[in-house]
From TrEMBL:
<dbReference type="GO" id="GO:0046983">
    <property type="term" value="F:protein dimerization activity"/>
</dbReference>
<keyword id="KW-0547">Nucleotide-binding</keyword>
<feature type="coiled-coil region">
    <location>
        <begin position="203"/>
        <end position="234"/>
    </location>
</feature>
<keyword id="KW-0175">Coiled coil</keyword>
<keyword id="KW-0067">ATP-binding</keyword>
<keyword id="KW-0812">Transmembrane</keyword>
<dbReference type="Pfam" id="PF07730">
    <property type="entry name" value="HisKA_3"/>
</dbReference>
<keyword id="KW-0472">Membrane</keyword>
<dbReference type="GO" id="GO:0005524">
    <property type="term" value="F:ATP binding"/>
</dbReference>
<keyword id="KW-0597">Phosphoprotein</keyword>
<feature type="transmembrane region" description="Helical">
    <location>
        <begin position="120"/>
        <end position="140"/>
    </location>
</feature>
<protein>
    <recommendedName>
        <fullName>histidine kinase</fullName>
        <ecNumber>2.7.13.3</ecNumber>
    </recommendedName>
</protein>
<dbReference type="GO" id="GO:0000155">
    <property type="term" value="F:phosphorelay sensor kinase activity"/>
</dbReference>
<dbReference type="InterPro" id="IPR011712">
    <property type="entry name" value="Sig_transdc_His_kin_sub3_dim/P"/>
</dbReference>
<feature type="domain" description="Signal transduction histidine kinase subgroup 3 dimerisation and phosphoacceptor">
    <location>
        <begin position="175"/>
        <end position="233"/>
    </location>
</feature>
<feature type="transmembrane region" description="Helical">
    <location>
        <begin position="97"/>
        <end position="114"/>
    </location>
</feature>
<feature type="coiled-coil region">
    <location>
        <begin position="136"/>
        <end position="177"/>
    </location>
</feature>
């Protein structure tokens, strides 16, 4: 049960007791109308910005119940006003709460006066009670400020943590690039020079040993090139890494991304090639959405199909008369997927552009 209903039910009970305790056939319809207006005002509290005005309206409606009724609703009037005052603790500011409390003190004393029950003891009691309520309101406002400060600090902490992770990743990638460049400039060049020298020797002297050395040098040079290429590739591996990069891209492109991960996707192992292909496909889809969509919202769904392969579906709103064409970006996406035996399809459904595809997870 929500917090609103928990606080609304006691008010309904108090209103029902107030009406039933002073039942009169002639005034009953008017009391029902006033009670309904009080409940409507209470329902508007989460919606209306000027809540103090609603609380004041509720108090005057309660007073109106006392006026129109043939029989006094008695202490229920005071109970309802007190409950309204307590309920407002978390809804209005400290200054507004003080104004409401002063009004309620005045209503309380006015009721005591017209019923000839006023004593100095009631004044002391009411002042102490409402002082306690004001203190509770100040405490509630302080807690709200602390919560707001905590959320702000938490947001800054998460932002700094992301920046640190990105900085470490960038430093790691820079170091890998430097190592790759050093290998390419030193080992790669020397291996190339060695291969050229062996070629010359094999031409001058037809010896089997030179051919074997040339083959060994060629294989070593090829392995060096593969190592350099692997070092230069960006570190993207696993669904979580892809999601991290996509979230970064979302923030930079100011696109609202509705990401849905079906059961088992997050724990699905992807090798480096599959991760890069998935990231590039999503990246190109977001780029297309920025260029051609009239809405900034993009929906992405990742799921596992019946055979355990990864399926993706990307949707974004486009103008209805937009033609579906295989541009350079989409063609490049298709080639990337075909290289790992994947598939890609695009189509338009009314004013929604859809990109779907499959990445086989069994392929190495």
């Amino acid at each position: 049960m929500s917090k609103f209903w928990i606080s609304f039910i006691p008010l309904v009970i108090l209103l029902a007791l107030a009406v039933s305790s002073s039942y009169d056939q002639s005034s009953f319809p008017v009391l029902l109308i006033i009670t309904s207006l009080i409940m409507i005002a209470y329902f508007l509290l989460p919606i209306i910005k000027f809540r103090l005005l609603l609380y004041i309206v509720m108090i005057f409606l309660v007073i109106l119940m006392e006026i129109v009724n043939v029989h006094s609703i008695g202490l229920y009037l005071l109970f309802i006003i007190l409950y309204v005052n307590i309920d407002s603790i978390n809804w209005i500011s400290t200054m507004e709460f003080r104004l409401l409390t002063i009004l309620n003190v005045f209503v309380f004393h006015f009721w005591l006066y017209i019923h000839e029950q006023y004593t100095i003891g009631w004044t002391i009691f009411s002042l102490l009670l409402f002082y306690l309520l004001i203190s509770l309101n100040e405490l509630a406002q302080s807690l709200k400020e602390l919560q707001h400060t905590y959320e702000s600090i938490l947001g800054e902490y998460r932002k700094m943590k992301r920046q640190i992770v990105e900085s470490e990743r960038a430093a790691r990638l820079e170091e890998r690039t430097k190592i790759a460049r050093d290998i390419h400039d030193s080992v790669g060049h020397k291996m190339t020079a060695l291969l050229m020298k062996l070629n010359m020797l094999s031409i001058q002297e037809k010896k089997v040993e030179y051919e074997q050395l040339k083959e060994l040098a060629t294989a070593s040079l090829e392995e060096t090139r593969h190592a350099v290429k692997a070092l230069q590739n960006e570190e993207i591996e696993g669904i979580s890494s892809v999601l991290q990069l996509i979230r970064k891209l979302e923030a930079e492109s100011h696109i609202h991304l509705d990401f849905t991960l079906k059961k088992g996707v997050l724990s699905t192992p992807l090798n480096n090639t599959q991760s890069i292909v998935l990231y590039r496909v999503l990246q190109e889809s977001l780029t297309n959405a920025m260029r051609h969509a009239y809405s900034r919202e993009v929906k992405v769904v990742l799921a596992l199909n019946a055979v355990g392969d990864l399926e993706f579906k990307i949707e974004n709103k486009v103008h209805q008369d937009t033609k579906t064409e295989w541009g350079f970006g989409l063609t490049n996406m298709k080639k990337r997927l075909e290289e790992i035996n994947g598939t890609l399809q695009i189509y338009q459904r009314e004013n929604t552009f859809v990109v779907t595809g499959i990445i086989p997870l069994g392929e190495e």
